[in-house]
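Researcher: Quick sanity check before group meeting.
Model: Go ahead. Protein one:
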Amino acid sequence: MKNFDYIFTGAGLSALMTVYKMVLSGKFNDKSILLLDENPKKTNDRTWCFWEEPNGSWETIIHKKWHSALFAAENIRRDLDLKPYQYNMVRGLDFYNLIFDVISKQENITFLTQKVIEIEESENIILIQTNSESFSCSKLFNSIYNKQKAANQTKYPVLQQHFIGWFIKSEQADFNPEQATFMDFSVAQRGNTRFMYVLPASQTEALIEYTLFSKNLLPKQEYETEIQKYIQKLGISAYEIIEKEQGSIPMTCYPFWKLNTKNVINIGSAGGWTKASTGYTFKNSDKKSAELVAFLQRENDFTKFYKKTKFWFYDLLLLDILDRKNEIGSTIFSSLFKKGSPTLIFKFLDEETSFLEDIQVILKCPKMPFIQALFHTIFKIKK
């Protein structure tokens, strides 16, 4: 059995970001590090989007950027000037290639394509069993999401951001490559929070994604039927499908950090790193991984890592509303974007606003659902 200082079970976004930043810091060259994942990370299996000011740390792998976005609902169409932000798309394969190019040059880092079967923790050592080998370590970073932990409780709502997207190429110049469609709620809601998401790469190419914030997934055909209808609505008659993607991202304020021990930390979706109210993952993981690498240089007890903030509670209120009244999601987001400052809204969603700025955003929302959610949530948490 081979022993490592650090083992990462799961090599998704959060794990790869953390290891990458450990390398860049130059502070962990004396630590042996193992990454375990059954996926070799050789395909373009996902797309991440995030907003930030220009010339950020991921600039070299941004596939496409937009300075303008469209928000739409049944009776609303608003062009959003995103400055000083830009909306960025990163392709999964570009991200993997960047990270593995760096870590492949590090003699202290090993990546193995093996499936983790079991994790067993004792006081001073953690044992990991894969489908072919056994390993041990003193510190474990786990990003394998345990769906049952959140599902088997009733205190915290659990929704999903679930979607199917088509990358299409049309025969005509059907898209405006300078503007992304951030949310288009003009599609039939059917008792849920449903919207379209369009990321044009050129006048003829775009990712068109049908997305829901709700509890239950749909049959695959329903997503694809809605995408076909939307393409027709855009007036596109001749096109080919280049790629497809699909996913389901947990949206919950369940306190995953309470599952951390002195030597085992849950990261990524398994650690609550996904932004609970929106499902956005890239920017949150970027921040959390940087915090974790800094933490490792000064602390040895993983139970001290997480700190709850006011934004956790704001997210909890929205999820409580969408859990009980999923059909009013369009109304809530429309009230935010109809007249609100896009810059302030994105700053708020990035959890970088002051309390006075929080109030400016919150006052744009319909009052009664949030008042009801406040009392409902406080009662549930105190039970």
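Researcher: Fine. The other one?
Model: Protein two, sequence then structure:
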Amino acid sequence: MSPRLPTVFIPALLCDEMLYRDVIAALGDAIEPQVLMSPQASLADSAADILARAPRTFALVGTSYGANLALAIALAAPERVSSLWLMGCDASDPVAGGSDLAAGLEATPDAIIAFLAGIVVRPADQAASAAFKAMAHRVGSVAGAAQARALAGRDDIWSRLGELRMPALILSGDEDPIAPPACGKQLALAMPQARFELMSQCGHLPSLEQPARAAALFHAFLGEDPAHSHLAR
């Protein structure tokens, strides 16, 4: 029996393990999954915490805030990250909106969560919207505000992306208003071994909106990497 690939999943802002539940189920015995969260004051602090709990080497998956945290982890310890899968990722310069989001979560969390639920997935996908709300209320406004502030204060890593030489899958939804496909394409071009994939009729959270399709793309990606080619068999 082929060994299972240790795989660390980092959820998006205000999301928990439910974000990846169906993707993990679809990948089955191909991976040994671990969902890790660490809403610290900075992405660097979160990266150090996750690296302390992660396997020695592992595939790394992140969405949105979690994708930016995954990039920080990969830059901090590239020798430990065998491959990257990033979804809904905008790695461009930080913007002030993160601080405003944090303040809103602290002042009026229910209103902010309801607003986000209307834009993180396609408006027609009521089930995904309800799932996001449920996750957000479980994670809570305190952790969400910490995540938003860490994202707003992240370092500009654009000039360092060429250092990430592990295979990378960059996945974007064609209806993502937060990190449009152009963000994913630019990210893929900046990384030496990155591949860009566009998912149709999909918003900001592909693993929640189209888990079977997202899992299939990741499985195929792993099978094309010689280090993980046994997973495609």
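Researcher: One line on it for the slide.
Model: The chain is about 45% helix and 15% strand.
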